[in-house]
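Predict the holo structure. Ligand: coenzyme A.
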Amino acid sequence: MAILRPEQPGDEPEIAAIHVAAFEDASEAELVARLRMSEVWVPELSLVVQQEEQLVAHALLSQVVAGESEALVLGPIAILPDHQRGGLGTALVRMGLERARALKYECVIAIGPGDFLAACGFRPARGRGLTIEMDVPDANFCVAELAPMGVTPGPVLFPQEWSE
Ligand SMILES: CC(C)(COP(=O)(O)OP(=O)(O)OC[C@H]1O[C@@H](n2cnc3c(N)ncnc32)[C@H](O)[C@@H]1OP(=O)(O)O)[C@@H](O)C(=O)NCCC(=O)NCCS
């Protein structure tokens, strides 16, 4: 049985291992560690999927500047390779969006596979007046609106933790 829950103290090494396995690289695990130490970290929005005693998926939403909105950014997100394409990623993101809405955030930015983000309820962000200083196709730069008028035009600016 899969349990979706917020990260708890002691989960950190297993979360890092999920990102290393999914991305075949430590950079996303290191990004999670930097964000965990930063002011943009929202403890309730670092979410894991637990199956039996094992963590198999992790998704993070943290604060970001996006126009004038109370905004979050989704990522990194990773599912262990042998658990991918089974619906866990979509379920985890949808839970993240519900929790973010309950915390009164107005929108969530994401950069990633367009088909996956569309399946999670995201839509292209440039069509909503958001801009980004990154060479990313329209379909891969997305936003999920959590409140009426929740998306406001303007630049998306990532905190320095994303570029270290
Ligand atoms: C991308 C990822 C998070 C998706 O999670 P998942 O649990 O495998 O995805 P789901 O089973 O919920 O997928 C739902 C739908 O999203 C789409 N989708 C999933 N992964 C996709 C990918 N890598 N590229 C494009 N579309 C994808 C598909 O339409 C899929 O439906 P289908 O399986 O019926 O075709 C996961 O595969 C992963 O960890 N990949 C490696 C790390 C990564 O790329 N992270 C960045 C994502 S923003």
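Residues 88-102 form the longest helix (15 residues). The mean pLDDT is 97.
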